[in-house]
Amino acid sequence: MSSTPPTTMPPASTAPAAVAVPATAAATTTTTTTTATTPSGAGPALTAPERVPVERSKGINGLDKIVLREVRGSSAEVYLYGGHVTSWKNDHGEELLFLSSKAIFKPPKAIRGGIPICFPQFSNLGFLEQHGFARNRFWTIDTDPPPFPTGTPPKAFVDLILKPTDEDLKIWPQSFEFRLRISLSPAGDLMLTSRIRNTNSDGKPFTFAFAYHTYFSVSDISEVRVEGLETLDYLDSLQNKERFTEQGDAITFESEVDKIYLGTPTKIAILDHEKKRTFVLRKDGLPDAEFVFL
C-alpha cells in the first residue's frame, strides 16, 4: 500500500498549497486558515495602544526572525532559517504550538517543533534526507511577490522565498522557486500559503512531495479527540503502513499513534477538553493528513 503519489510539476507552472497538518503530496489550489478558539466566558484580552504588525529581529543564536502581531494581542514568530513558524499565540498570550525543549537553533539541524516545511520529500519516502531540505535552508524575505489569491492581505504578514543552492542541485537537480506567505488575521487566525514554481530551463517536469508538519500544543492525549476523519482509510506507520479504515465517531487516543489519513476533508477539528480549546483546520490542495501522538 502507498500514500497519495507526489505531484508532478510541469515547467513554468505554479502549485499553491497550504495546510496546517502534514500531508504526503503537494497540490494545485489553496488557501488555508488555522483557528484556535477558547470558551466565550474567557473574556476579551487587553489591547495594547499600538502594535507594530511586522518586526524583524534576532532570535536564538542570532538567527533572523520575523514577529507578526495583531492589535488584539495574537502573534506569530517565523525564523528565516527553515521558513519555520516557531510560535503562535492567541490574544490571551497562550502558546498554541509545541516547541521541543530539545530544539536546536543551530544549522544544519532542523528546528524541532512549530511548523517545519517538508519539501521536496515527505518523511523517508525517497532518497533525500528525512522530510527533504527546505526546513534546514535559509529563506529570504520576498520583497516583490506575485499577487496571491487570498484577496486583501492582513497587515501582519511576511512573504518568504527559497531557491536551490548549487549544493541542493547536486542532490536534487531541479530548479524551483518556493514562495511562502505567512499571515495573521485580525482574529488571530494563522494562514500559510505556499506556491512552488518549476523554473527548469530545459522544460523538464519534476515530482515532489510537500507538507506542513505542524506540532500543536495539546494536553494529555486522553483529553483530545479529532473530528472529520471518521470512516476514512489510513496508513498505519506503526504497522508497516498497512491500510485500514477508521471505525466509529470522533477519533480518540489511548496510546502512541502515527496514521496518515487519505482523502481528508477541507475542515478538520482538534478538540482539547482539558485546555477547553479547539483547533479548526481549513485546508485546500493537500488531500492527506498525518496525526502523530507520542
From TrEMBL:
One Pfam match: Aldose_epim
Enzyme category, top tier: isomerase
Family matches, as SUPFAM superfamilies: Galactose mutarotase-like
Signal peptide region: none
UniProt keywords, alphabetically: Isomerase
The EC number(s) this enzyme carries: 5.1.3.15
Domain of life: Eukaryota
Catalytic activity of the protein: alpha-D-glucose 6-phosphate = beta-D-glucose 6-phosphate
Region (Disordered): 24-50
Residue ranges, compositional bias (Low complexity): 24-49
PANTHER family to which the protein is assigned, alphabetical: APOSPORY-ASSOCIATED PROTEIN C-RELATED (PTHR11122), GLUCOSE-6-PHOSPHATE 1-EPIMERASE (PTHR11122:SF13)
Family: Belongs to the glucose-6-phosphate 1-epimerase family.
UniProt name for this protein: glucose-6-phosphate 1-epimerase
